[in-house]
Structure formats: structure tokens, C-alpha cells
Amino acid sequence: RPRKKANVSSQNRPRIAPINMTPLTQVSWCLGALIEQININISQ
What are the Cα distances from residue 10, in Å, to 5, 20, 23? Predict the structure, then answer.
């Protein structure tokens, strides 16, 4: 898996969570960001 820059995401998800998100959306967004961060750490 090729290395990516930290600020480049495979999805169009922004790095900063939007303010008008529901708690459920926030949880799933945080989970996605966490999984992506783990994947980046593994691939380094």
C-alpha cells in the first residue's frame, strides 16, 4: 500500500469535523478518522 501524505484522504471526508453533525455522524466520522490514522501508521 503506497504511502500518502497525512492531509490527503482516500475519501472526501474533511480533516476537521463539521460543526452541524449529529452525535451518530460524529462517532462514525471519528471512527473513520481513527481507522485511517491507524492505516497510515501501519503503512509507514
Answer: 11, 23, 23
Please, are residues 41 and 21 in contact by the beta-carbon 8 Å criterion? no
16/42 Cα distance (integer angstroms): 22
d(CA 29, CA 32): 5
Q: Which amino acid is at 5?
A: K
Question: What's the one-letter identity of residue 36?
Answer: E
> Residue 28: pLDDT band by 50, 70, 90 thresholds?
confident
CA 43 to chain centre: 15
Query: What's the whole-model pTM score?
Result: 0.45
